[in-house]
Amino acid sequence: MTLKRVLYVLCILALLFGAWGVFDRLTTGHENAAYGSYVVWGLWVAMYLFFAGVAAGCFMFATLDLLFDLKLFKGTGKAALWTGLVSLAAALLSIWLDLGHMERIWKVYLQPNLGSVMAQMVWGYTLFGLLLLVSLFLAIRKPTSKILKVLMIVGVPLSLFVSGAVGALLGVNAGRLFWHVGLLPVQFPIFSLASGFAAMLVVIGWFGAKDDARRPQQLWVIALVTIGLQVAKLYFLWADFSQSVYGNVPHNVEAVNQVLYGPYWWAFWIVQIFLGSIIPIVVLSRRKWAENPKIASAIGVLVLIGFVVARANIVFPALTVPELDALTTAFSGPHLSFDYFPSLMEWAVTIGIVGLAVLAFMIGTDRLKLTRAEVA
Amino acid sequence: MSDAPQKQDVLVQMQVDLKRALEKPKDQRRWVMVLDLRKCVGCHACTISCVAENKLPPGVVYRPVLEEEIGTYPNVTQRFMPRPCMQCDNPPCTPVCPVNATYKNDDGVVVVDYDQCIGCRYCITACPYGARTFDFGATYTRGTPEVAGLIVGQQTADDYERAPSYEYGAEHARTGDEESPIGNVRKCHFCLHRLDVGMLPACTTTCIGRATLFGDANDPDSVVAGLIASPNVMRLKEDLGTEPRVYYLV
C-alpha cells in the first residue's frame, strides 16, 4: 500500500469522524464544546491561527518562484499556492464553525466595524483568498501573465498584513498581559513563514516529482530556512517568557507558568519544543537527512504539529488566568471554568477539517498536476 | 447627596432620584452604581434576582458576588464584592466588535444588540473584568424527568425555561431553537428595561443590606453623586483607563 493510499484511507476516516462532529455542532450548537465563557476560544481558534499562518507562509514561499523567479524553485509556486488556498479554506471553516451565529457572517462584510481588528482580518483574508485563487488560476493557465506578477507583488504586503493582523487581534487586548505584547503582530508573520516552509517540506518531500533532480537541493534550502526560522521562534519565545517572568506581573507570570508547568506542560516541552523544534533543528542540519524526501517531509509534519501546539499555547494560557482572582468560585454552571481541554466534538470537527484539507490537497495536486517537474 | 437628615429608606430616595433623572434627556444622565462593600453580607440576593429578572440560563451570569478571604488566623475576615458590568466610559469591549453589535447607548450603558451579534466572543476576551458570558443554550431541566412526580418535572419547569426575557425592552423568547440570545454574548445592562419604566435595577431593589446603590451621577442631589465623591471610593483596574461607572466604597 503506497503512502498516498494510506493517506486517502486516513482522510476518509477523518472525514467520517468530522461529519459526526459537524452534525453534533449543527444540531446542538456549542453545548458540547469544552470552551466556555472564561476560556472563550478553544481548539478551533487555535487551528484557525495555524491554518491561516500556513496559508500566508505558503504564499510567501510561492513568491520564490512566481515573483522572484528563483531557478531552484521554478515550478513549485503552483503547489505552494494550492497548499495555501486549501489551508486558508480550512482556517475559515474552522473559525466559521466557532461562531455563535454562523448565518450572520455576512454582517462582517455588509455591516462591518472597520475599526475592529477582527473585521479588518476577515476582509483581509477574503481578499487574500481571492488573490490566491486568481494567482493559482493564472499560474496554471497563463504563467507568463503580467497580472500574475502584479498579484504576487500585491500579495506580499497582504500576506504580511493578514498574518500580522492575527497577532494584533490578540495583542490589542490590554487586559490580557500575556497577549499584550507589542511585537506579537511582528512575530506572527515569521511564524507564518516558518509554518509555510514546513508545509512545503512536506509537499516537496512527499508529493514532489521524483524525477526532479533539483529536489534534494530544494529540500536542503527549505531545511536551512526552516532551521533559521525555528531558532528565531525559540528566541521570541525566550524573550517573551523571560521578560514576563522577570517583570513579575502576577497575571502574566501565571499565564507563562501555565504553559511551562501547568497540566499541559508536556504539550509545550515535549511536542512544541522537543519534537517541534529541537528534533527538526538537529535532523535538518544534517544535509544528508535534509535531502532525503521521506525524512524531510516527516520533519515537516513534526514542525507543523509543533506549530499547532504553539498556537494553542498562545491562545489558551491568556484565557485560563482569571481576570479577577475570585471569579473562579464566584458562580458555577456549565461553561464557567478556567480549565480547558477540547471536547470530543471539538476534536472530531478539527480532525475532519484536517482530513478534508489533506484530501483536497491530494486530489488537487493529482488532478491539476501541480507537482510535476519543470525545467527551469 | 443633600445634607438634610435622612428621613427615608435609601431605596425610596433612589426611586425619587430615578424619577427626576428620567425627566432629563438621555445624554444628560450618567447612570452609576455604587457598591458599599462594608454593607454587603454576601447573601447573593442580587445575583439571584438578576438571574430571575433576565431569565438567565445556566452558565450565564451578569452579577456574581466574588468572595475573598483576607488575613490569617486569628485576624481573618471575608470580603464580598458584587461584580456587575462596569459600564466603562472607555470600554475595551466595544471597539473590537466586528459588526458594531455592542456599543454604548445614549445613556452611556454598554449594550448588546442580540440580532446583530455573530457570537465571535472577541468582546469577552477584551473585557478586563470577566463581565461577559456566552449563552450556550443550556437549560436547567435537561436530564430531569419529563413528567412531574414528587418533584417538579421537566414539563412544568420548562415553563420557566421558555419564559421570554424582556432585556433591552424587547421580547426574547426561548423557543428551543438556536435563536438569539442563544449563541450571543450577554452582559449586565443596569436593567435598562426597568429603568425605562421608572424601576430601579433588580439587584438594587433586592439588596437586603442596601449595599447596592444606583442613580444619576450628574444629579448633584442624588444619593450616588454624594457617595462617589467620598475619599473611600475606588474603581476596579483604574490603571487600564477604562473609566468604570461602578464604584466601590471600601
Describe the structure.
Chain A has 376 residues and is an all-alpha fold. Chain A has one domain: Up-down Bundle (Formate dehydrogenase/DMSO reductase fold). In chain A, 74% of the residues lie in helices and 0% in strands. Chain A is built from 14 helices and no strands. Chain A is globular, with a radius of gyration of 21 Å. The two termini of chain A are 33 Å apart. The mean pLDDT of chain A is 94. By secondary structure, chain B is α+β, with helices and mostly antiparallel strands. Chain B has one domain (10-249): 2-Layer Sandwich (Alpha-Beta Plaits), CATH 3.30.70. Helices cover 20% and strands 18% of the residues of chain B. The longest helix of chain B is centred in the first third of the chain and has 13 residues, at 10-22. The radius of gyration of chain B is 19 Å and the shape is globular. The two termini of chain B are 18 Å apart. At the A-B interface, helix 5 and helix 13 of A face strand 2, helix 3 and strand 6 of B.
